[in-house]
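Closing statement on the 2-acetamido-2-deoxy-beta-D-glucopyranose sub-project.
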Amino acid sequence: MLERMLSFYIFVFVSFTAVVFQCDGAPVVYTITYQQYTTVQIGWTQQQVTQNIGSAGNLVSQTGTGNTAITIIKYTGSQSPLAVATFLFQGGYLFSKTQVGLDTTVYTITLAQYTAIEIRWTRDQATKLVGSAGCNASEAGTANTAMIIVQYKAAGTTFGIVTLGFVGGKIVSKSEIGFATTVSNKINLLQYNTIQIGWTQQQVTTLLGGSGTIVSQAGTQAAVTFLFLGGILSTKSQSGLDTGIYTMTYQQFTTIEIGWTRDQVTNVVGSAGCNGSEGGSGNTAVIVVRFTAAGAAFGNADLTFINGKLTAKTGIGYFLTISNKITLQQYNTIQLGWTQQQVTALLGGSGTLISQSGVQGSTSQTSIVLYTGGASSSASALITFQGGIVYSKTQANLDTGVYMITQQQFASLQIGWTRDQVTQFIGNAGNVASEAGTGNVAAVNVQYKVVGTVIGTVNLIFSGGKLYIKTGFGFK
Ligand SMILES: *[C@@H]1O[C@H](CO)[C@@H](O)[C@H](O)[C@H]1NC(C)=O
Ligand SMILES: *[C@@H]1O[C@H](CO)[C@@H](O)[C@H](O)[C@H]1NC(C)=O
């Protein structure tokens, strides 16, 4: 089961990687035709793939050793630099392949067809209904565990896409982006509040006077989403439908405590906030309540209540009004394991509380605190405390040093090398973006810029002092 989940995770990861690389636009080096792509079969060795395509492709990422080694290779379309093919090898054998833009045929699907398609249908059933087989965007696994993601263009939309997920030849998921904008079923706040978790889809449809639409819009800013599981409403969420103004000051945000009831929070803040989303019932009822951050242009405070008690609070945007600063030297001085008091004393301020969860004062309480860089407005550091102790630290743009790596060096790096070996090989220690844990479980993320590229970036993750994952993108 775990293996299956891992495989699916990797599969999704590769699909995602392909999208990222679409923006790359780097000069064409390793090319592939659509015909070559379709010829390559799941289960082939890396050598077979190289031989068939005529080049080894760009190494994007490599991790693990032996049977668990995972290698990701990328090619650019021979017709268009925006077309990309990505291959993922597990233990030396092709596990999944993904393409974007290589198949230039346009496969169209209408909203009525999309609605009619049912989970558990075969590919043939879907093809017959729609009139075309769609584009094989990603494929992984074989026989019973074969996964395939098929895409169609949503008819009557500019960028609309319908995605069908097949496992073992049957549809397991369907989703669409773009049709929703053409749907005209309206909902108002009163109707939204009337709809209760546990209602059947029929009850919802009857109340709203519209059928067959799960996503609905009212006005331009508001959006409502209902999620049905087994035909029963399991969650509802809205944004922009409730136009009331609920403001929370930063002081109120820091005062309210994990474990408080909704009434206690309402008493301190002076308003109940906006019910953003609701799911479950009784003991497992979850509700996310949103307030506007006072003094911030776009800030929010989101409070999560489970079974009526505050379990997490997250503030975004308050930092616009707070001026707690940190320098690179201070950041480097802070050590994992320091108390929050030590950090506050060093920096001369308690930073901006971004998020908090877990019981107040307990060892499970987690707080994320933001400090901003004095030198540049884009520089910042996030310190995560667990039970009042620094658990991890992350910085962005605080270290303005230039750390370069060549593509050749990246390709030569071996999984399992120590940090010192890597530093010596590359000639510099890189930008330490984040650190967490100590000893065997220590994780460090080091970043480099790639020589001769505009946006080329390499991320190295060390676990317990050894190179564990290497990832690169934006190569020439
Ligand atoms: C798409 O995938 C299906 C199922 O694996 C396969 O039968 C078909 O040949 C593929 N089509 C193309 C064009 O590769
Ligand atoms: C928001 O949620 C709470 C708790 O479920 C409920 O008591 C209240 O009536 C809701 N408010 C609105 C405006 O729907």
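The CA atoms of residues 98 and 368 lie 37 Å apart. With this model delivered, the sub-project is considered complete and its resources will be redirected to Aim 3.
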